[in-house]
Sequence to fold (298 residues):
Amino acid sequence: MLRVLFSGVNRKTGLDWLAVPILDDGGGQATGRQPGVLIACAGVGTGVSTGGPCEQFLCDTQKGMYKRIVLKLSGEALAGSRGFGLDADKVAGITGELAEVHALGVEIGIVVGGGNFFRGVAQQAQEMDRVAADNMGMLSTVINAIALQDALEQRGVQCRVMTAVFMNQIAEPYIRRRATRHLEKGRVVVFAAGIGNPFFSTDTAASLRAMEIKADVLLKGTKVEGVYSADPVLVKDAVKYDEITYMEILRQGLKVMDLTAVSLCKDNNLPMIIFNMNQPGNIRRVVMGEKVGSLVTA
Fold:
């Protein structure tokens, strides 16, 4: 009997899925291995190779498709119309889209906020010490990260939560090399607790993590279609930008991300796409290279 052991994406060779046939004696015991055979590629589906044990099929992902991404999710996105806590249907919808993207062979990192529970700069924290309030906000992001992990694993997607503050009994500590290895093995990684320090937003954490793991792009899901010249909810004739530079965002004072995050992306030439998370299928469209939302470049 022949079983097939899958491994993750090999970024150096460009192979999207590497399968190692394992000879099975029928009782579940592996009796030997043969050289790896590539049997599936992103966007192609799966199927056993009809070639010999050393045969390899090279397959390119679709042109324009991002290979490794970091998705910034706000806590409010997980709350849905409730505005507070977690909306099970909303979490299921987001993780369903992420599972589809993951099936394409894309390596996914997620940075999640905690505003659906507590935000250190919100009115509810105005009487508190800023450090204490930000610490509470970091803990809120861990709650959201565990919820995402559970929802993804229920869909058969392996997921790891990595926190910037130590809480070893419920999550792994963030170590850059370990995070990269998880991604290479095909696991989704959820980065929680911001960068582990007060006074820094989860937007800054998303920018930093994207640069550390060498992501191709930073995706930020919002309630609107992209970057506008003004708040489109308040200003009806606000102009949407299909493409804009970080310098122009700083010059116009647009409220896309906090200034620290924008400066980090600008200084390190990290492209970012702002898009509407409330439109089903948008995550997949962005990853596939379709013109969705606004592209921000250095």
